[in-house]
Design brief:
- The complex is a heterodimer of chains A (116) and B (114).
- Chain A is mainly beta.
- Chain A contains no helices and eleven strands.
- Chain A starts with a strand and ends with a strand.
- Chain B has 114 residues and is mainly β.
- Chain B has no helices and eleven strands.
- The chains are: A mainly beta (116), B mainly beta (114).
Chain lengths: 116, 114
């Protein structure tokens, strides 16, 4: 059974800092890995998607990396801003085979607070 | 497009009552998903549909939960009878791809069962 773990559970940083959020998964047979953002009282918004054959993806100040063999992904946020405050979740989709194929398994998320 | 629309946003009910949550997916999306989010268990997939047909309901916790998709633009998740442990945020999401590489979530329904 795929398990996804995110560390740290919560992070508080001053504005302007570069930060790294970590995600690990137990089964390396993944189709892709996605990072989502969730604001309080809102649904999830997709930030970045990394295919299993890729090593990283970038969008603006966000950079996500994937090391499938070690079961790890990191989300790097450069020059953090108060508007980045939210919960960040990673999710993996299992590769072909079995009843879990195609389903997303989510981590518990990292609650990020960026204070001015 | 207005995105995935869920109603109600908040629902407070008493134990034993029937609860119906509603979802309108994005037009053209063939896949619809119901998720439940709690502090203890995080986000869990309850059921998903493809072209209005339930494909996998293995995440539905028990027989008190049922979901339907009578047409491409509407789905319901029903809990009958409701229990306090059903209190959670219920999300609907839709996708036009499989696997769902781009998943669009609604704003969720915050359910409180007293």
């Amino acid at each position: 059974k795929q398990e996804v773990t995110q560390i740290p559970a919560a992070l508080s940083v001053p504005e302007g800092e570069n930060l790294v959020l970590n995600c690990s998964f137990t089964d390396s047979a993944i189709y892709n890995l996605q990072w989502f953002r969730q604001d309080p009282g809102k649904g999830l918004t997709s930030l970045l998607l990394i295919q299993s054959s890729q090593r990283e993806q970038t969008s603006g100040r966000l950079n996500a990396s994937l090391d499938k063999s070690s079961g790890r992904s990191t989300l790097y946020i450069a020059a953090s801003q108060p508007g980045d405050s939210a919960t960040y979740l990673c999710a993996v989709i299992r590769n072909a085979g079995g009843t879990s194929y195609g389903k997303l398994t989510f981590g518990q998320g990292t609650i990020l607070t960026v204070h001015p | 497009d207005a995105g995935v629309i869920q109603s109600p946003r908040h629902e407070v009910t008493e134990m034993g009552q029937e609860v119906t949550l509603r979802c309108k997916p994005i037009s053209g999306h063939d896949y619809l998903f119901w998720y439940r989010q709690t502090m203890m268990r995080g986000l869990e997939l309850l059921i998903y549909f493809n072209n209005n047909v339930p494909i996998d309901d293995s995440g539905m916790p028990e027989d008190r939960f049922s979901a339907k998709m009578p047409n491409a633009s509407f789905s319901t998740l029903k809990i009958q009878p409701s229990e306090p442990r059903d209190s959670a945020v219920y999300f609907c999401a839709s996708s036009f791809l499989w696997p769902p590489e781009k998943l669009f979530f609604g704003s969720g329904t915050q359910l409180s069962v007293l």
